[in-house]
Amino acid sequence: MSRTSRKKNRSIMAARRGPSLNVILTGVVILVAVLVIGGVLVVNRSGDEGAASNEALVPAGAHTLSKVEGDRVTLVEFLDFQCPACASYYSGITKKLEQDYQGRITFVVRNFPLEVHPLAVPAARAAEAAAKQGKHAEMYHALYDNFEEWAVDGRTTSADTARATAKFEEYATAAGLDLERFRADVASDEVRATIDRDVADGTELGVNSTPTLFVNGEEFQPGGGSTADVDRELRAKIDAALAG
Amino acid sequence: MSTVNRRLARLHVVGGGLGLAAATALTLEKVAKLRDPAHVPTCSLNPIISCGSVMDSPQAEAFGFPNPLIGIAAFAVLVTSGVAVLAGFEPPRWYRVALNAGAALGAVFVHWLIAASLYDIHALCPYCLVVWAVTIPVFWYTTLDTWPALAPLRRVHSAVLALWYVLIAGLVLVEFWDYWVSLL
């Protein structure tokens, strides 16, 4: 008795449910969800490859000192080539860090020339012009390795453009650059636009001093102390990101 | 119309069983953590997939004791009820309404926990995901079965369920977007 009533009940339910409508709607919901999510993921991926999804942080064509597949861990430094703090970060932290983490992290450098440094923009232009010939890293190293030669007069910030220009051309020649092309690029609108873009991006990200570093999009705020302390802190951050 | 719905009863047994297993696992992890505060739960894989941070949150003890204890009690009742129906028990009206009320409370609680997990704790706990995943269909189908007025919705029962799941999955995706992208 209960068996027949159950059977009857089920057939009524089946007829009432109209399986096709339900199945179609369910399929539509799932299909739309898969398409939307998949579409956004694909667009996001091809747009700026990988974890550093922030276009302002790592724009297309950004200069990398080290690169890891998929940008799993990204270190971005906004720097001013004539800023003494940046130079001491370079000699005390990032030069060694670049070697130690080579191929394990993506290390991006962005320009953020400050107005208080008269040679910061010419130096940034030299770096960008070298980049046009594929030698950005070489120029970056030359500018910081020889900081004393062009950026300062003794203890004060230099404003000697002629001396700096001569030095930059010396570094360009040493890096094997085509000097005529280098000079043209230094003066080009394209190089100026790249630096302007970096400054605009930095401003958008809240950068107001140099050096400012971002580890996986998060601003690195050192607790202070000596350069060695900051170095330890930064490495701990990167190691944690690598482990995570 | 017969009051017996064996499909719903089977859902109660399976859903309740999964929920019971998840709640038990969470309770055992909680006990292990109380014994040894340094204990890292088996379900803490990284900063996002981490039941440790979820279990340590104030929301994990919403009523002053660990939530999974509620799960152990409630899911056990659900399984028992489903088994009883499969064994021939024909629940009276008041029983089905009460069961539906219980499922509704569970659903409200689970959605509160989802919001807490996404927007306060910022971590996901795999066992909790199991509880979310079973509580929603248990509530939905129990409600559909209990109230004849909802008959029109029965025609699109799984579409509604799919939409429900998709919405929550969408919220999870958006909230942890950077993490999911980093997995690609």
From TrEMBL, chain A:
Highest taxon, organism lineage: Bacteria
Keywords: Disulfide bond, Membrane, Oxidoreductase, Redox-active center, Signal, Transmembrane, Transmembrane helix
SUPFAM superfamilies: Thioredoxin-like
Keyword Oxidoreductase (UniProt): yes
Domain Thioredoxin: 54-243
Transmembrane segments: 21-43
UniProt keyword Membrane, yes or no: yes
Pfam families the record matches: Thioredoxin_4 (PF13462)
Membership in a protein family: Belongs to the thioredoxin family. DsbA subfamily.
Name of the protein this chain belongs to: DsbA family protein
Species for this entry: Saccharothrix xinjiangensis
